[in-house]
Design goal:
- With about 230 residues, this protein is of the alpha+beta class.
- It is about 30% helix and about 30% strand.
- It is built from 7 helices and 13 strands.
- The strands form 3 sheets. Strands 3, 4, 5, 6, 7, 8, 9, 10 and 11 form a 9-stranded antiparallel sheet that branches. It has a two-stranded antiparallel sheet with strand order 1-2. A two-stranded antiparallel sheet has the order 12-13.
- The protein is globular and about 50 Å long.
């Protein structure tokens, strides 16, 4: 596939993904944590084992949400743009949590990859270093801030973040995106309270999900045709 055709495919993929975010007049609204945790087809922890011009291969060590039999996933690389840059260049050996969308058959044939990142920015990949993970696009109360280092942002305890992601879908589901996004609560109040008390990360996910539920305005339901329309 020639370069122009590939770049055209990537543009179409990004346009589809950007229903999750708002990009206008140089402004970028990154996806929230609950969107990533609820909308991804697959959320995995893994290590980058190969990198080429267009994609990278992620060797999966744990599936946090979703289903997949393959242990090595070919994922389209994030490409830096005006409003967002990856935390550092891709390199073999980087460990991360990745929020992924499964490509359809046509997209797989055209790109050679099987997945794309669930974000138009760098929020679709969270770097893991030791016992910490760096999160992009939001701030959880607590956590370690590092605004001066190679990787500015917020670092949170890895085990806490992984647990919050693993169990989020027991209590919430996320449907649609952009203005049509809807969050639904699934679990009983007692189970939800137990989840949110595990950490400030869990509580943050519950709080932002409940705020989204409270703010949701269902789309208008088409009413019956006016009598003059029925007579036509």
């Amino acid at each position: 596939m020639n370069r122009m055709r590939f770049e055209g495919t990537v543009v179409l993929l990004v346009i589809a993904l950007l229903e999750i975010a708002t990009v206008a007049e140089g402004k970028y609204d990154p996806p929230q944590f609950f969107e990533l945790a609820g909308l991804a087809d697959l959320i995995v922890r893994g290590e980058i084992v190969t990198v080429n011009e267009k994609a990278f291969t992620l060797r999966v060590s744990e599936i946090l949400a979703g289903r997949e039999d393959t242990t090595e996933l070919d994922v389209l690389k994030f490409v830096d743009w005006t409003c967002s840059h990856r935390w550092k260049p891709y390199a073999v050996g980087q460990e991360e949590v990745a929020f992924l969308l499964r490509l359809d058959d046509k997209e797989m044939r055209e790109t050679g990859a099987h997945f794309a990142l669930l974000s138009a920015g760098d929020e679709g990949e969270w770097e893991i270093v030791g016992s910490e993970i760096s999160v992009q696009g939001f701030r959880v109360p607590g956590g370690r801030m590092d605004d001066q280092g190679e990787h500015p942002g917020q670092w949170l305890p890895l085990d806490v973040v992984l647990d919050a992601i693993r169990h989020y879908r027991r209590c919430f589901s996320v449907h649609g995106n952009g203005r049509n996004r809807e969050v639904r609560k699934l679990c009983a109040t007692r189970e939800l309270d137990q989840y949110r008390r595990r950490s400030t990360v869990h509580d943050y996910l519950v709080q932002t999900s409940e705020e989204e539920i409270a703010a949701y305005v269902p789309p208008p339901t088409p009413g019956p045709f006016p009598p003059e329309k029925l007579r036509q």
